[in-house]
Design brief:
The structure holds two protein chains of two kinds.
Chain A lengths: L8 E5 L4 E6 L8 E7 L6 E6 L2 E4 L4 E4 L5 E6 L8 E8 L13 E6 L1
Parallel strand pairs in A: 1-9
Antiparallel strand pairs in A: 2-7, 3-4, 3-8, 5-6, 6-7, 8-9
Chain B lengths: L4 E3 L2 E4 L5 E6 L6 E7 L6 E7 L14 E5 L5 E5 L8 E9 L7 E4 L3 E5 L1
Parallel strand pairs in B: 2-10
Antiparallel strand pairs in B: 1-3, 3-7, 4-5, 4-8, 6-7, 8-9, 8-10
Classes of the chains: A mainly beta, B mainly beta.
């Protein structure tokens, strides 16, 4: 899997939009970008996945520029319950593959 | 089942004892993974099973750790002669093709192991 770099931690306030950027300079042609969210005392859960341009679901948006060397997870109008660790993964994802998680971004939402 | 099930959810054991942790993956998922997460840390890969292939054991920290997967479904992670540094949350995940995704990984809630 391609190596990823993301901020160790971020703070934001309720109601704000939060953008977390992940760098993946050596992304391969067949790689997808996937984000996971982990709450305390729980396993990570899938948030969103994309290949290029923009993907939006009920939870978040994922922005991927044309060169695909980075991606930005956007959380609209965050609440205290969005406090979690967010992991960016890059890989082929069209088969079962060993996944190595980085340290993720610890997002802390303040009231 | 509907999700990945792990048991027990919590385990307290004495140093030197053996423990077994169980993972019941999503039905039909061919791949199964074990991870370890110490307090405030990221996920540490332990072992990966894919179908009938030999497991990838490259993440097991010592020979005290072993895992098996019976019948391509349920997996058991065994830690022999537990040490205090083994205290962590042990997470299991399974993966397979899901609607709308190029494969998704579903995690269980983990087993919190405390070695005293």
């Amino acid at each position: 899997l391609a190596k990823t770099t993301q901020p160790i931690s971020m703070d934001s306030y309720e109601g704000q939009e939060v953008n977390i950027t992940c760098s993946h300079n050596n992304i391969a042609t067949n790689d997808y970008i996937t984000w996971y969210q982990q709450f305390p005392s729980q396993g990570p859960r899938f948030i969103i996945q994309g290949y290029k341009t923009k993907v939006t679901n009920e939870v978040a948006s994922l922005f991927i520029p044309a060169d695909r060397k980075s991606s930005t997870l956007s959380l609209p109008r965050v609440s205290l319950s969005d406090t979690a660790v967010y992991y960016c993964l890059v890989g082929i994802m069209n088969r079962d593959d060993k996944i190595i998680f980085g340290k993720g971004t610890r997002l802390h939402i303040l009231p | 089942g509907a999700g990945v099930s792990q048991s027990p959810s919590n385990k307290v054991t004495e140093k030197g004892k053996d423990v077994e942790l169980r993972c019941d993956p999503i039905s039909g998922h061919t791949a199964l993974y074990w991870y370890r997460q110490s307090l405030g840390q990221g996920l540490e890969f332990l072992i990966y099973f894919q179908g009938n292939s030999a497991p990838d054991k490259s993440g097991l920290p010592s020979d005290r750790f072993s895992a098996e997967r019976t019948g391509g479904s349920v997996s058991t992670l065994t830690i022999q002669r537990t040490q205090q540094e083994d205290s962590a949350v042990y997470l299991c995940a399974s993966s397979g093709r899901q609607r709308g995704l190029n494969y998704g990984y579903t995690f269980g809630s983990g087993t919190r192991l405390t070695v005293v």
